[in-house]
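Dock glutathione; give full complex structure.
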Amino acid sequence: MTSTTTTSKPLHLYTYPTPNGIPVAAYLEELKAAYPGVVDYEATHVDLYKGVQKEAWFKKVNPVGQIPALVDYTRSRPGDDDKKDSDSQGFAIFDGVAILFYLAQNYDKEFKFSFNPVKEVEEFSEMVQWLMFTGSGLAPRFGECRYYRVVAPGKGSDHVVNRNVELLRNFFSVLEARLTSRDYLVGRGKGKYSLADMRAWPHIKFHEVTGIESLEEYPNLKAWLERCFERAGSKNGFEVGKA
Ligand SMILES: N[C@@H](CCC(=O)N[C@@H](CS)C(=O)NCC(=O)O)C(=O)O
């Protein structure tokens, strides 16, 4: 893979099945099933272990050089409308949460997996809060724990390794408490499966690589993970972007 692919599908996802990549694939799968004939996409595997994400062609899609990234071929970048260059075709979005919001705004008009920011002000705000919780807390802490355990074992002091696991456990406990008497993180009653859940569950799914080997002490979290993962969209999304 040395360049972006022009496809017949309106949306093209560049990804790898990591906890940051899976939420976008899972959402696209949910949207595809919920809006048949309206939402469709193709996916390209970006080989993170070969450094494909740092190649020049990919950095035109995501200047940060990371997955996930999405190109929407039904739109163009502001200012690019008159360009003929194929590089300028499509509107590119980087960062998992930004992509989820973009898809919600443009492809989930009935708020099936989101909340109406005007009519459901509190729910929408809570969804943003849990998205931020994962994006700025759970995900980076997960990354640190995995790094010292899988990528660079023995390179971190016991203090650093233990502190990261302790902080991650705290995030697990926050989720455990939130999920008391609820099925999903946000929504009235028992809640509704939304972006907030989609962004978070893949991190919990991979808990073993962080050093938290069992979820037995987090029964609500464990049940929620099973509930989220039993969805076809989750199972399909989990496979997207594999080599
Ligand atoms: N904040 C970003 C983080 C993305 C991220 O960390 N992606 C990782 C994979 S999970 C990646 O591409 N790593 C390869 C690299 O940084 O070179 C997001 O949520 O999209």
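Observed: The domain at 121-231 is CATH 1.20.1050.10 (Glutathione S-transferase Yfyf (Class Pi); Chain A, domain 2).
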